[in-house]
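Students often ask why inverse folding is considered easier than folding. One informal answer: many sequences map to the same fold, so there is more than one right answer. In these notes we will look at a single instance of the problem. The structure comes first.
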């Protein structure tokens, strides 16, 4: 899979020091304090377009430090190198995680290699590969099995165009939600991108549509795949597909998407929709942000501004997470003014899912596997909030050598996810 200053508020504690202000002075300050509180609330509302105040304190948020998260990186290496079964995952990209209600974690993988790893280092150039797979991790953090279709085939089956070209599905973000709004039964919903084979610049597939798969719990069986949005833009680069991130918050799930202008060397534009909890598979329930309000027409969706412009530097696989009352967006800084060509992860923060997004702030240049000699590319940074702690966030990213396909056969580490742990701080 390819890509690719707020207001801090708080209430001071009541004074119990007998040397504090008299009761009369406190009464005189009452109207002023109330006015100040109103102004602070109004300022927070203005920070969130549409007049929706954040549910918690929203404060400027940045990444203050990072370090390798070796345990997760090494667990994927252990599982990939295990040749006790030859019909499971040895490498892949598009890696996104979803905590399940029973404590397991579902990992979603796009293009996935199967078969044998030779001497813990290389794979056969004729290895079987599929367009997508799932991986199941136990409660104690051990990868246990790969989810595939019969054959083995992709977990989410592919299609074909009328003239016989391949159409495949890449899994993106997933959420656990009620089967229907208000239902006690839960299911997994997985956002899918449908793509078809194409020519340059679409060597990674022409974007076609957004879909949602319903997966049963606890057995993780694919029940259905529903179409959500089929953009009609003649230029594939202008087609907005949704699912690069999905964040449940209250009674809504916020689903983030992007177009694919990076195929033309420009920044992608970022978009957001929201859906009531339990309704992700119902296209009629989706509402798209048009810059002022949520409405039913996807064609009227407006790009979110990153920094001072929508063209600042997003890729089509950015990620979004929530930390306290603040939303955090991370992306490799590609295209647009001052974009740096997939070398640096940058962050933006906002008080609401639709922005405005403040930044950019440099996060890190993702470390590559030893011996990659500058040939490899780090892409698709994805947040994994369930592996974080109170003050941090785990970020994963994928590695590939796009100009040399044979490289990922010679060295399996060049096509496996890697992880870092980010320290977050309020500024």
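Output (designed amino acids):
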């Amino acid at each position: 899979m390819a890509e690719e200053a707020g207001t801090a508020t708080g209430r001071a504690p009541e004074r119990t020091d007998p040397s504090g202000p008299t009761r009369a002075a406190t009464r005189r300050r009452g109207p002023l304090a109330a006015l100040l509180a109103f102004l602070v609330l109004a300022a927070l509302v203005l920070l969130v377009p549409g007049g929706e105040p954040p549910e918690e304190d929203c404060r400027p948020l940045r990444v203050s430090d990072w370090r390798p998260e070796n345990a997760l990186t090494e667990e994927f290496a252990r599982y990939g190198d295990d040749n006790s079964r030859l019909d499971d995952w040895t490498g892949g990209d598009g890696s996104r995680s979803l905590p399940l209600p029973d404590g397991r974690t579902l990992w979603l993988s796009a293009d996935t290699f199967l078969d044998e790893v030779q001497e813990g280092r290389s794979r056969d150039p004729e290895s079987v590969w599929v367009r997508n797979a799932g991986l199941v991790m136990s409660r104690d953090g051990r990868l246990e099995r790969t989810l595939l279709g019969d054959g083995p085939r992709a977990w989410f089956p592919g299609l074909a165009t009328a003239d016989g070209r391949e159409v495949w599905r890449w899994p993106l973000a997933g959420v656990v939600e009620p089967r229907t709004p208000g239902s006690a039964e839960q299911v997994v919903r997985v956002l899918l991108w449908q793509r078809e084979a194409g020519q340059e610049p679409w060597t990674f597939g022409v974007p076609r549509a957004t879909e949602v798969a319903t997966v049963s719990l606890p057995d993780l069986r694919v029940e259905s795949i529903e179409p959500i949005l089929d953009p009609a833009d003649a230029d594939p680069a202008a087609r907005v597909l949704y699912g690069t991130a999905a964040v449940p918050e209250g009674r809504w799930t916020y689903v983030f998407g992007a177009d694919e202008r990076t195929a033309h060397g420009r920044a992608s534009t970022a978009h957001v929709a929201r859906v009531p909890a339990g309704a992700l598979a119902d296209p009629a329930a989706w509402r798209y942000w048009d810059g002022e309000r949520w409405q039913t027409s996807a064609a009227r969706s407006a790009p979110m501004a990153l920094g001072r412009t929508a063209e600042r530097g997003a890729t089509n696989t950015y990620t979004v997470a929530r930390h306290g009352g603040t939303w955090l967006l991370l992306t490799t800084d590609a295209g647009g003014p001052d974009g740096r060509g997939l070398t640096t992860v940058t962050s933006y923060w906002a008080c609401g899912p639709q922005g405005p997004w403040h930044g950019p702030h440099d996060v890190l240049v993702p470390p590559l596997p030893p011996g990659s000699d500058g040939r490899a590319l780090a892409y698709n940074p994805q947040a994994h909030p369930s592996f974080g702690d109170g003050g941090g966030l785990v970020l994963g990213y994928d590695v590939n050598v796009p100009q040399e396909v044979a490289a990922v056969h010679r060295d399996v580490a060049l096509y496996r996810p890697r992880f870092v742990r980010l320290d977050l701080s309020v500024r």
